[in-house]
Design goal:
Helices cover 55% and strands 4% of the residues. With 203 residues, the chain is mainly α.
Amino acid sequence: MTPSDLKFARRILGWVLHAQRILKMPELQELLAIEIGIASLNRQDTSSAEEIISSCGGFVVYDLDNDLVTFSHETVRPFLEKNDVIFLPSHSVFGKTCLTYLQLSPFDNPSAYKDYDKRKNEFVFSDYAAKFWASHVLQSERDVELETMTLEAFSADGRREAMGQLCNLYYTKNKSLFHLLIERGLTSIFTSPFSSDEAIERM
């Protein structure tokens, strides 16, 4: 495998190993097309299901009936955890991927009810990103870039409401950034020396 192929395979294995729920193939395809820090999604960069599965050398399988991507055998998870986990992406990388995704322009504001399902179907990774970005942040080592991305991602009222809508259609409106961080267990972001005065002012 080329270094690029190996990096790609490890990204996939990392997500299958550490995802907070089993990912569907369209979700995996979208997140793999995201470049951290660049809030854009080029559908032409989306890898095919065949490319994703073949790159992992038989470690993962794609169940066409339920659209889920899982390990090919129960022994794969403990093998990776014992032998290869330090070479796989960290929870910090997963958190940054989710936060970058949630900064896409369609999530600048909540959708009207009639547009909600359309947006969620078009941006399939949005459900996972909105529900689990904080889980990855909480499992990360302290990372000033990650914490800054968190503050930047949710400094806008519209994006906080859009994320709330993705998590629950009957979300609480007008939730402050301060409230959001407390709710997600991320109070260290604004009590830590990592947080700049400018970042705190955004709250």
